[in-house]
């Protein structure tokens, strides 16, 4: 037998990365069904794992305590719907469509799920996702609720005193104006104007735009964005924000270009994208959340994916082959980094540390699972970090990709919930598990706490 020469060996390694998942005895994803697009295939297996391990339906968990709600909170359940909708659109399939379609809740129900005073950015994710779902699939109730969310946020949260040119408050405490709320509302308003022609949305998008520029959120020499402003001076905090803030702004500027055809929006978006990528790239070129990786909290674990999601909107808006190729190559590099350093896909999958923080898996547990730092090493799988990488895979799907075959419609019934106990190691490393003996359920204690003999985190 001839030994493999290095070139052949390399080819084999690459094929393994994009080949079918070994060990998953009945996989519903293949490279062939997406006409060879490996971003779509990777998205397919990452989403399959996400749904099997944590989420028959992201929203179901919000309405049934500790069941199917593996995210850290309310907002991520809304934000992931946009990922799922984009995947359906970019690869032209119907996988998990019933989950997307079934995710509609009216404004009142969303407020009930969250508690009395949601911060406006948390509601903003539902506004963005619902507007996108309407844009792609035309479900009228999603458009209505996207408008209800925007209108409620505006009515409750816009500073009409005009101090610092207005702006959205962070929450009902009215003591902070931060980037994320304002870029989200900018994005939603511009999109709602495009979807409805209601000039109220256009006017409001202009008011938010004015607020952002009047307060110099964007540093004109570095193009890095501040995460907030000083309310006394109306000056930027100059604390560089997280990747997702600029990401959502890039999405908003893409919308503004579509409305105005003013090229300066695209130039600005490109400068912002370059600045965020430079600032947050590790020495190895891997995209990391500079403000927190490798120790990001459960919120920040999802941010990089939101940046990339919006970068794709920008690429589609510009539709310039040179620019598309530049960012496509960048995404490909990030994908390879994740596959090599940040993935666990062992056989059996139980060899991978997977956290089921708020409820048991409803289907057979499956891989691949990804952790939070794209630079690796893999530490544990959980839905926030899975979604971030899923957004990357979805954003990388080449235009024109089309699904064919029976599994393009894969959309399993949502099974009834099952109880789980602490003996299944459901909590992240360093967090004690506390069992409620009589209720056959559990909670994960904060890292600073321990579970006492009465089963209470203290
Ligand atoms: C897996 O295989 C079983 C038995 O062949 C079948 O009943 C089930 O529908 C399959 N599941 C998927 C996800 O294809
Ligand atoms: C908005 O107006 C434009 C231009 O008149 C038109 O092409 C488009 O169909 C309108 N959209 C809606 C949702 O009414
Ligand atoms: C939008 O703003 C313009 C000019 O500032 C104003 O004339 C118009 O009435 C506004 N439209 C709405 C719907 O508020
Ligand atoms: C922009 O960033 C640079 C470099 O951090 C800083 O020196 C400068 O003060 C910032 N500009 C403004 C207007 O804040
Ligand atoms: C385009 O936008 C820039 C920046 O907001 C503005 O200065 C310029 O006047 C706009 N151009 C047109 C034709 O409206
Ligand atoms: C960035 O790379 C350096 C050198 O490889 C490494 O020590 C560091 O941990 C990395 N940071 C992150 C967040 O991965
Ligand atoms: C596409 O983008 C590149 C790089 O920004 C630029 O040099 C080129 O002129 C653009 N092409 C078109 C047709 O706009």
The CATH architecture category of the largest domain equals: Alpha/alpha barrel
Number of helices: 14
Morphology call: globular
H and E string: HHHHHHHHHEEHHHHEEHEE
| Largest beta sheet: strand ordering | 1-2
Mean pLDDT level: 89
Strands, helices and their partners?
Elements: H1 6-18, H2 38-53, H3 74-90, H4 97-101, H5 107-114, H6 120-137, H7 140-157, H8 179-196, H9 199-214, E1 229-230, E2 235-236, H10 243-260, H11 264-280, H12 303-318, H13 321-341, E3 343-344, E4 369-370, H14 383-395, E5 433-436, E6 441-444
Antiparallel strand pairs: 1-2, 3-4, 5-6
Helix pairs in contact: 2-14, 3-6, 3-14, 6-7, 6-8, 7-8, 8-9, 8-10, 10-11, 10-12, 12-13, 12-14, 13-14
The structure holds 2-acetamido-2-deoxy-beta-D-glucopyranose (7 copies).
Outline the structure in words.
Keywords: Signal. The strands form 3 sheets. Strands 1-2 form a two-stranded antiparallel ribbon. The N terminus is likely disordered. Helix 7 packs across helix 8 and helix 13 runs antiparallel to helix 14. The protein is mainly alpha-helical and 458 residues long. It is built from 14 helices and 6 strands. The chain has 2 domains: 389 residues, Glycosyltransferase, CATH 1.50.10.20; 38 residues, no CATH class. It starts with 5 loop residues before the first helix and ends in a 14-residue tail after the last strand. One 2-acetamido-2-deoxy-beta-D-glucopyranose binds next to helix 13.
């Amino acid at each position: 037998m001839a030994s493999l020469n290095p070139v052949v060996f390399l080819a084999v390694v690459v094929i393994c990365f994009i080949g079918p998942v070994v060990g998953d005895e009945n996989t519903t994803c293949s490279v062939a069904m997406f006409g060879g697009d490996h971003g779509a295939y990777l998205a397919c297996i990452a989403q399959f794992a996400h749904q099997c391990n944590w989420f028959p339906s992201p929203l179901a968990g919000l309405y049934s305590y500790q069941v199917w709600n593996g995210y850290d909170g309310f907002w991520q359940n809304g934000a992931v719907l946009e990922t799922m909708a984009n995947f359906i659109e970019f690869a032209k399939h119907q996988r998990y469509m019933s989950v997307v379609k079934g995710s509609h809740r009216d404004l009142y129900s969303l407020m009930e799920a969250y508690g009395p005073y949601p911060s406006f950015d948390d509601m903003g994710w539902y506004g963005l996702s619902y507007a996108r779902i309407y844009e792609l699939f035309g479900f009228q109730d999603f458009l209505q609720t996207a408008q209800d969310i925007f209108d409620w946020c505006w009515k409750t949260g816009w500073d009409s005193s005009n101090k610092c040119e207005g702006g959205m408050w962070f929450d009902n405490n009215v003591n902070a104006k931060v980037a994320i709320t304002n870029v989200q509302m900018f994005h939603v308003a511009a999109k709602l104007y495009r979807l409805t022609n209601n000039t109220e949305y256009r006017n409001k998008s202009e008011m938010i735009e004015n607020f952002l520029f009047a307060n110099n959120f964007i540093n004109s020499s570095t193009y890095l964005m501040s995460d907030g402003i000083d309310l006394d001076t109306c000056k930027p905090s100059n604390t560089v924000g997280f990747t997702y803030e600029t990401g959502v702004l890039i999405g908003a500027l893409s919308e503004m270009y579509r409305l105005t055809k003013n090229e300066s929006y695209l130039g600005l978006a490109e400068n912002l994208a370059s600045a965020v990528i430079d600032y947050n790239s590790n020495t190895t070129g891997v995209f990391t959340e500079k403000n927190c990786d490798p120790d990001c909290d459960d919120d920040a674990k999802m941010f990089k994916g939101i940046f990339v999601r919006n970068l794709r909107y920008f690429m589609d808006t510009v539709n310039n082959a040179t620019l598309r190729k530049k960012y496509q190559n960048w995404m490909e590099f990030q994908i390879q980094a994740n596959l090599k350093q940040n993935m666990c896909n062992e056989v059996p999958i139980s060899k991978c540390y997977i956290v089921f923080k708020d409820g048991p898996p409803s289907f057979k547990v499956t891989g691949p699972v990804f952790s939070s730092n794209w630079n690796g090493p893999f530490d544990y799988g959980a839905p926030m970090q899975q979604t971030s990488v899923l957004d990357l895979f979805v954003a990388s799907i080449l235009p024109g990709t089309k699904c064919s075959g029976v599994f393009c419609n894969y959309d399993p019934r949502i099974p009834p919930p099952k109880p789980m106990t602490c003996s299944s190691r459901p909590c992240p490393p360093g967090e004690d598990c506390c069992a409620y003996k009589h209720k056959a359920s559990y909670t994960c204690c904060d890292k600073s706490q321990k579970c006492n003999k009465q089963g209470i985190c203290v």
